[in-house]
Amino acid sequence: MTTFTREDHSGTGPGEFTPDGCSVEMYVRLPGNGETEIIAAAAPPGATLLELGAGAGRMTRPLLARGFRVTAVDESAAMLAKIEGAPTVRAAIEDLELEERFEVVTLASFLVNTADTATRAGLLRACARHVTDDGLVLIQREPDGRHETRTPGVEWSRDGMTISVISIEPVAEGVSKTCIGYEFEEARWTQTFYSENLSTPAFEAALTDAGLTVESYLTEDRSWARARLSDSSRTAV
Ligand SMILES: C[S@@+](CC[C@H](N)C(=O)[O-])C[C@H]1O[C@@H](n2cnc3c(N)ncnc32)[C@H](O)[C@@H]1O
């Protein structure tokens, strides 16, 4: 079976890009889209929070402002350089081995939908390795059917910018190659990425394999899941 890794992703536009094709300057400008509110409603106030794939701190900033004690992880030094007020760790999430355990671990931005099964397993194991025995893992995933509802030409605008689906094509069973455009007044970026459509049972099975159990979904479309360590994965059993 063909595997598409994040190194197959790409981006166009001004400035630096991450290995997975994200523009640093675009993420500096991208406004929040309700993610912080979802996290804050689920997490205990003031919790220690490990943010995996933090990028330029789009969620880090409002989470810090709400009193969470955030540690931001990303493999891109250029992204992390944009973050102020939180400790940052430059690492591939799959390889992360911090001594500290966190009351909340977040894996947002649909990273779990990577079309690389081994990386997905690594991301989820990193969540399990870094959460406290009674802590929460909050994961943002593509909701069921998202690939079918995305068609070229679809666009949505918010806060002075427009996001559009430039192209989307199936490239393997359940895997799409998508090109998204981000248009701001002064500049335009694109990102082309591969993602795997994970049904709810497939998503939950991937978590089970990593020692996590989905406890509930935080949004009606099931795009945010709240998980905990499975009983057998707790250290204090
Ligand atoms: C789509 S951006 C989202 C950033 C941030 N979560 C946000 O919503 O603004 C994804 C970020 O995850 C990072 N990333 C992707 N895969 C990674 C991995 N396996 N290990 C470390 N960082 C990763 C990229 O470098 C990038 O900064």
Protein model, in words:
The chain has a 7-stranded mixed β-sheet, sandwiched between helices. Strands 1-10-9-8-7 form a 5-stranded antiparallel β-sheet, with no helix packed on it. The chain has helices at 24-29, 35-42, 60-65, 77-80, 117-130, 146-149, 200-209, and strands at residues 10-12, 48-52, 69-74, 88-90, 102-107, 131-140, 155-158, 161-172, 175-183, 188-196, 212-217, 224-229. It has 7 helices and 12 strands. Helix content is 22%, strand content 33%. With 237 residues, the protein is an alpha/beta fold. The chain has 2 domains: 16-143 and 197-233, Vaccinia Virus protein VP39 (Rossmann fold), CATH 3.40.50; 146-196, no CATH class. Residues 6, 18, 20, 22, 27, 53-55, 58-59, 74-76, 79, 92-94, 108-109, 111 line the site of S-adenosylmethionine.
| Main beta-sheet strand count, sense and barrel state | 7 strands, mixed
Order of helices and strands: EHHEHEHEEHEHEEEEHEE
CATH architecture of the largest domain: 3-Layer(aba) Sandwich
Structural class: alpha/beta
Specify the oligomeric state.
single chain
Mean pLDDT, rounded to whole units? 95
Features:
alpha/beta, Rossmann fold, 2 domains, seven-stranded mixed β-sheet, five-stranded antiparallel β-sheet, 7 helices, globular, binds S-adenosylmethionine
Brief overview, please?
The protein is an alpha/beta fold and 237 residues long. 22% of the residues lie in helices and 33% in strands.
